[in-house]
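Async update (no meeting this week)

Hi team, since we skipped the sync, here's where things stand on the single-chain job. The sequence we agreed to prioritize is pasted below, unchanged from the tracker. I ran it this morning and attached the output directly underneath so nobody has to dig for it. Comments welcome in thread, and please keep replies under the output.
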Amino acid sequence: MFSLKRISFAGIALIMMVMLYGCGNSGQEAKVDVELPVNPVRIADVSGSTEELLVLGYKPVITGNTDMANSLEITPILKKELPDVTPAGWFQTEVNLEAIIAASPDLILAGPTQEKIYDQLNMIAPTVRVPYGFNAFRERFAFVAEVLDKKAEMEAWLKVYDQRALILHDQITEITKEETFAVIEATEKEIRIYSRTGIADMIFNDLGLPIAPGTPEPDPWGGKVTSLEALSTFNPDHIILLSDNDQNVLDQSKVWSNLKAVKSNNIYRMTSRQNYNEAFFALGKEALLEQIAEQIKEHIKQ
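Output:
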């Protein structure tokens, strides 16, 4: 049995930076090398696709979509949608083989991280290799939908989501015009400026809001660790601040307090935990899209 461990957010970032080199957007097609059940009803998902499976009409019996701070707990959204589902550990690290066996699945979806135990999983039930990891939401969704012959359902969901994002873009930019945005994560030890992945992907791609000049080129995780001094040359009009507590490196910083967005109080607070638990998956993205847009619209109306 594989052990389940709590993982720090810094540890998550390090793991993902390594993982993305080997399993990112490789453009792979849905090639299934196992015989699938015709109508699977007991899907064990350790590929990170549980929320997308719900959109497609399936209710997995076990999931790897666990809380980023605690791999023994499923995410808050899934607690509402699947209150009785069993967690198998975070899908990007170790998973619990005994829990998967106990769930008696008729189909397993496994991500790139499970490559070394693929044969063991395939002995439990037919196992599909999903070749897309954490940051490849649309590619992962498309792959799983094609495997399950649910492409029409996937396209319908994406159409509604993208249309809603466009409406919210127009509502926000009607007031903010060309004002720029930044996504900054602050911990007790460092700050990271994001330009891709998670909430940053939603801000700059889904909502299409202008990115602040001087945003650094991202590492594979989608952001860049930045010094406080470097913030002095980076002056966005609006900042989405990711922080899980009030004690972080930005406290008492004159550089931070002198930023245009801070002086104007154009700060929209989210948590790092919320970013990691929701911004990479279908149902979470729906909820966050509304929350982020509402925060911005309500603030700029004041």
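Quick observations from my side:
Residues 1-29 have pLDDT under 50 and may be disordered.
The longest strand covers residues 181-186.
Reply here if anything looks off.
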